[in-house]
Every structure is written in structure tokens, then in C-alpha cells.
Amino acid sequence: MKFLLVFDFDHTIIDENSDTWIVKCAPERKLPNELRNSYQPGHWTEYMGRVFVYLGDNGVKEDEMKRTMTTIPFTAGMIELLGFIGENKELFDCIIVSDSNTVFIDWILEAAGFHKVFDEVFTNPAAFSNTGYLTVQHFHAHHCAKCPKNLCKRKVLKEFLDKQLERGVSYTQIVYIGDGGNDLCPVMFLKKNDIAMPRQGYTLEKRISQLAQSLSPVQCSVLVWSSANDIMSYLKLLIKE
């Protein structure tokens, strides 16, 4: 009897967007208009590549970025929730599927001591070049028309579950915790016994309720959360059952 917890990162584990938070390192804490306006829908990773070049050109170094990123606040109740999951690892496998990047997520989890809570992190690979610039790449290639070019979370989840099955691990229930539009694709992959937990007032919640109104609701149960304490209450019920 094991449960799989799937977390988004930005606006779910942390209460901000890690990619926009890094702008605090820029001169005057903002980006030039032409850079800001260069974003094209579905191509966020390329846009962030240009942001990192701009920061590098302006002499922003790794240690300054790290200091800035580790000041991001966690979502209300999240520190307690991750502590609770860490204490009950024999019941929960826990993964992150995020459109952030490996460097940011590693820094933030490490600073807070939460690395051990997560079994795997699936996100865009990032690294510092020998010139000290942060570079980011696409997580994978996929053919899903609904998702950004660099990441289909449904594909990540499906491949993870297939790999676990090969190892002889199957889950009683999948709990998917997220907030964004790119979390809808994996939520639509969930089965009747699974549960989607969209963050209250965010895009994922709105998209799920639009689907229900158009009479094509998601198969799984839906439980909205506003604080991570809501998630913890649900997990405590699961354990009791």
C-alpha cells in the first residue's frame, strides 16, 4: 500500500515563480522591455535562456543568484506538510514535475533540508557554463499539442509509472498537487481512484471546473486546497484508511 504524491513546484511548493524571482538579481531588479517582450507562448525555456544571458552580461554571479533564490517563501503550511511526508516515507513516494530548472529547485530544497523528501525531480536541466552563465535546456521532446514545447507533464508521469511497474511498484492512489495550466494534461491522465488537488484561485482549478461545465469532467476526484494544511489533512485521512 503505497501512495504517489506528484508536486508542481512554482506557486505550489514555493509561493512564487522561481523564474520571475531571479529578476531581483537584475540591475534595478527589472528586465529591459525588449527582453520582456521577447517571450513567445510555449517557448518559456528559450525566454529564460535569454534572461540568464542578460544576468550574466551584467555580472550577476552564481552565489548572488543562490542567495536570492533561497529567500523565496514556501507556500503556507508547506514546510509542515513536507516534514510530515518525510516522516512517513514508507507510505509515500514523492516526485516533483516542474517547468522550473534543476539548479533553482536543488538550491531551494537543499537550503530548507527537503531533498530527502523527494524520490525524483523532473525539470529542465540547468548548469553554469565555464564563463559563469546559467544555461537551461528543454526537459525532453514530445508530441503533445496541449503542452509547452519543452515539457509534457503527462508524458513524465506516464513514463515514471511505467518504470515503477517494471520495478514491481504500483500505487494505491496518485495525488497530484499543482496550480498551473500545464498541470491539466497530467490531471486528465489520472484514473477514477486518483485525486487532483488544484490550488484555489489558480489556473488549474479554473480549467478543471470549465471541463466539468462542458460536461467532459476529469475522471479523478478533485479536492481544492488553499494552504498545504488542507493537503496534510487529506493525507492523514488516507493513512488512517
The H/E string reads EHHHHHEHEEEHEHEHEH
Q: What is the CATH C level class of the largest domain, in words?
A: Alpha Beta
CA gyration radius, whole angstroms: 18 Å
Question: Which superfamily, in CATH terms, is the homologous superfamily of the largest domain?
Answer: HAD superfamily/HAD-like
Count of separate DSSP helical elements: 10
Largest sheet: 6 strands, parallel
Structure in a nutshell:
It is built from ten helices and eight strands. With 241 residues, it is α/β, with parallel strands linked by helices.
Give the helices and strands, then pairings.
Layout: E1 3-7, H1 18-21, H2 33-36, H3 44-57, H4 62-69, H5 78-87, E2 92-101, H6 102-112, E3 120-124, E4 126-128, E5 134-136, H7 153-166, E6 173-178, H8 184-189, E7 195-198, H9 203-213, E8 221-222, H10 228-240
Parallel strand pairs: 1-2, 1-6, 2-3, 6-7, 7-8
Antiparallel strand pairs: 4-5
